[in-house]
Amino acid sequence: MGLVLGCVCAFALGSVPFALLLVRALKGVDVRTVGSGNVGATNASRAFAGRGARLAVFLLIYLLDAAKGFAPTWFGPALVGGTPQLDGVLLGAAAILGHVFPPALRFRGGKGVATTTGVLLALDWQVTALALAAFFAVRWITGEVFLGSLALGVALTAAAIALHPAAAFAARLPLTLLCCALTLFLFWTHRGNLRRRFAAARDGAR
């Protein structure tokens, strides 16, 4: 019962739309009317003029959204009295789902990249570090945030298995399964970006 209540609380925390609240407080604008309409750090930064302001807003919202995933994953298992890894995985997954499907926003939230980063940071900082390195490398090479996000997702699974090959499908199986699920989930949340990219490639080839 404690774990169920913990997951409900983690979902509620994850559903707090920091991008919406901060952009509305600082600019008086609904972030859902800006750019792609996404409730996340990247789109929220588009509401501000100037590279410095956009970067500051992006980092602030990214950290807040990451904290929504980190807090229940890191502190939650001790509060519900369960096993750190398995309960951490379940609590973290609940927080990510809350971010992507917030009830107050009619279940249309962000893409989950920042909250995923927070969850994985609490579970395994080395896996997270490699995934973030992949994100920044692809982001720098391509200039596309969404491609960096997809690279982060793939790197999560690759790093979780490569860093601990003997335990990946034994003692660390809950974490491995979470990383695999998150890789697929990030591709699903970025499906609109992928469709636009493929459409642009087809048009360019004609």
Outline: globular
Low-confidence stretches: none
Question: What count of structural domains?
Answer: 2
Secondary structure tally, helices: 10
Query: How much of the residues is beta strand, in percent?
Result: under 5%
Give me the strand/helix succession: HHHHHHHHHH
The SS-based structural class is: mainly alpha
Q: Please describe the biggest sheet, giving its number of strands, its sense, and whether it closes into a barrel.
A: none
Using DSSP, what is the number of strands? 0
Helix content: over 70%
Q: Return the average pLDDT rounded to an integer.
A: 92
Task: Give a written overview of the molecule.
The protein is an all-alpha fold. The protein has 2 domains: 1-111, no CATH class; 124-206. It is 75% helix and 0% strand. It is built from 10 helices and no strands. It has helices at 2-14, 18-27, 41-45, 51-80, 84-100, 113-123, 125-142, 145-162, 173-189, 191-205. Helix 5 packs antiparallel against helix 6 (113-123). The chain is globular, with a radius of gyration of 17 Å. It starts with a helix and ends with a helix.
Please give the structural blueprint.
Elements: H1 2-14, H2 18-27, H3 41-45, H4 51-80, H5 84-100, H6 113-123, H7 125-142, H8 145-162, H9 173-189, H10 191-205
